[in-house]
Each structure stands twice: as structure tokens, then as C-alpha cells.
Amino acid sequence: MTRDEGLPAGPVLVLGLGNPGPQYAETRHNLGFMVVAELARRLGVSLTRRGHSSLWSEGRLAGRKVIMAQPQTYMNLSGQAAQGIMGYFDLPLERVVVVHDDLDLEPGRLKVATGGGAGGHKGVASLLAHLHSGRFLRLKVGIGRPRFGEAVEDYVLSGFYADQRETIQQAVNEAADCLEVIVALGATAAMNKYNARGLRKEVSSI
């Protein structure tokens, strides 16, 4: 297979959304950070460079440069960091992949998508506001909805339920696998593999 038209040749930015600081490290809203950290680990680099309102590093995957970044602006200003690092590397939106948590997907399910609105996600809303477009690729990682009536704001800034932790760790690994497919083969290949996988799980549970 070859790269599809959804991811043009050239360096790729993989931007994981989250909040900086150890108090947020294992929270639902930091799934984007977790996935980017796993991809960096696989590529043998650490996210230790500071600049452009981010922690970031570079690696190589499938013959192309991959820039991995975790914004340090807090979630609601993620677009500011994205704007800075995209400007520094002169990257178009078509070569940006954003990884973030998603309330509307069951825990651990992945979905690759292009375009659309923020869906209530403050990080994505900031990206849309700063980049003036939604034409970036998104890898959504499901966190599901609160079980016990928690306010959404508290839920996303809390750790996972004990019975979800293994599922989420598997999802982080699968999401890193998915990013490898996106970089190597393109968005369509990743959609076909990972979006369909989630649908099969839903069908089998009926």
C-alpha cells in the first residue's frame, strides 16, 4: 500500500492534547499526552525539548520526520501551542494529527476523523479558534460518560475507574499503533482498520 491523499508527503506533527503538571498526568483529559508519549518511546526519543508553548521532540517513522508535541498551555489554549509549532516548522493543516480524549466513544474505542466541530472539547475548540479551520486529522480515544453523575468538568480531570485501567492502557498502545499506520499509509488506511474495529465490537455486543 502507499500513502493516501489524506496525508501529504513531508514532516508530520502529532499533537497530543492534555494539561501540564503531575496532578493531571493520569487523568482522562490527558489521553492525548499518553498516546504521544508512547509513540515517542517507540521512536526512541523523549519529549524534553521546550519551545513553542510545548514539550516536543522529533523522530523518524516510515521514512519521514515526525514531530511529537504536548502543549504546555493548558487544554483551553491548545490552539496557541499548535499555532506556534506549526509556524516554526511551516506545517500545513493537512500534515497535522491531533490526539484527544472523547466522551462520546466508549472507553478504549478509537476513531480517526477529519473535520467536524469541537463536540464540547475545549482543546479542540481552541484549535478551531486559533487555526481557523477544522481540516486537521483527529485520532479520538474514548473515555465514555460519567457513571455516577459526576460533572463532566470533574470527570475529565479525574483518573479512570479501576476496572477501566487495563482497557485504557491497551487503547494507548492501539492508538500509537494507529498513528504508525497514519504516518506510513495515510488516514484512509487507519480509518478502515481502527474505526471498523470499534463498530465490530459494538455489533458483537448487541
Describe this structure in words.
With 206 residues, this protein is α/β, with parallel strands linked by helices. It has one domain: 3-Layer(aba) Sandwich (Rossmann fold), CATH 3.40.50.1470. The chain has six helices and seven strands, in the order βαβββαββαβααα. It has a seven-stranded mixed β-sheet, sandwiched between helices. Strand 2 and strand 3 (54-61) form a beta hairpin. Helix 1 (31-42) packs across helix 5 (165-185), helix 2 crosses helix 3 (122-131) and helix 5 runs antiparallel to helix 6 (187-205). The longest helix has 21 residues, at 165-185. The chain is globular, with a radius of gyration of 16 Å. Mean pLDDT is 92; it is low at 1-5 and 199-206.
Structure, briefly:
The protein has 206 residues and is α/β, with parallel strands linked by helices. It contains six helices and seven strands, in the order βαβββαββαβααα.
CATH topology: Rossmann fold
* Mean pLDDT rating: 92
Number of helices: 6
Count of domains: 1
The separation of the N and C termini measures 34 Å
* Uncertain residue segments: 1-5, 199-206
Q: Helix share of residues?
A: 25-40%
Q: Would you list the SSEs in sequence order as H and E?
A: EHEEEHEEHEHHH
Describe the biggest sheet?
7 strands, mixed
Under CATH at level 1, the class stands as Alpha Beta
Q: What is the molecular shape?
A: globular
Rg on CA atoms, Å: 16 Å
Strand content of the residues, in percent? 15-25%
Quick one: CATH superfamily? Peptidyl-tRNA hydrolase
Reading side by side through the largest sheet, how are the strands ordered?
A: 2-3-4-1-5-7-6
The second-level CATH architecture is 3-Layer(aba) Sandwich
